Amino acid sequence: MTKDALLEIDALRATVAGKEILKGLNLTIGAGEVHAIMGPNGSGKSTLANALMGNPRYTVTGGEVRFQGQPLAGMPPDARARVGLFLAFQYPVAVPGVTVVNFLRQAVNAVRGEEVPIREFREELFVKMDLLKVDRDFARRYLNDGFSGGEKKRAEMLQLAMLKPSMAVLDETDSGLDIDALRTVADGVNELMNDDMGLLLITHYQRLLNYIKPQFVHVLIDGRIVRSGGPELAEELESTGYDTIEAEASAV
After folding, report:
1. Residue among 82, 20, 21, 85 at smallest CA distance from 52
2. Is the whole model's pTM more than 0.90, yes or no?
3. Which of 112, 119, 159, 181 is in the most buried spot, having the most CB atoms within 10 Å?
4. Phi, psi of 69 (to 5 degrees)
């Protein structure tokens, strides 16, 4: 295991419905680091997120993923959550009939492996809601049912705050958000980021990175990371697009 590495991805290959999407992806993320993966549509960004969390629709066919030195192969999604992995979805699913507070309590109990007393849970929940500037009435609503895009993403930030993962993967969290909602969600992520947590931002556009500043930016093309750099790489992509990098990758 690389010193201080939380997540190590070595030559990862994955297929969806029999089609190979990831073709030997390598990436290492350490504690306290913010990494961004950018790439055009169809490059494999969401496949990476789902493969990391063990979504059964995505088949890992080669390579290895280690989290805190532990191989994740064969580990179901709930077990990955319990060891400290978290995924915020591009399109969170509505769960009518299940309130946000009840969903969060069950999730917290499952991840911590014990029944958290109701009073203790509510006190912690209210602290996190205040930190993220979420109205307390939000907790009584059904999860994502009738939520705006911004509300869905704020609900996921509340999950992130309560579950306290060691590694968070945000899959196109900026998708469908207007500028005010984007800023609100980004503020929440920045409040929750700490020196013990790794963060992987998966995004198509640079605008999210105006508010959440990564130390490392990677370009994903055709299932492989073809270029890595600092925040300036995201600015370059914003001005030039992906065409030049795609042409370079194809030539190689």
Report:
1. 85
2. yes
3. 159
4. 85, -5
Instruction: Give CA–CA dist 171/94, Å, rounded.
Output: 17
Tell me the pLDDT band of 1, cut-offs 50, 70 and 90: very low
CA-based nearest residue to 38, from 165, 189, 226? 226
**Segment 57-109, tens digit of pLDDT:** 999 999 999 999 999 999 999 999 999 999 998 889 999 999 999 999 999 99
What's the one-letter identity of residue 11?
Answer: A
Domains and CATH numbers, the chain: 5-251 (3.40.50.300)
Q: Which residues contact 63 (CB under 8 A, 6 or more apart)?
A: 9, 10, 11, 12, 13, 24, 25
What average pLDDT is seen over the chain?
Answer: 92
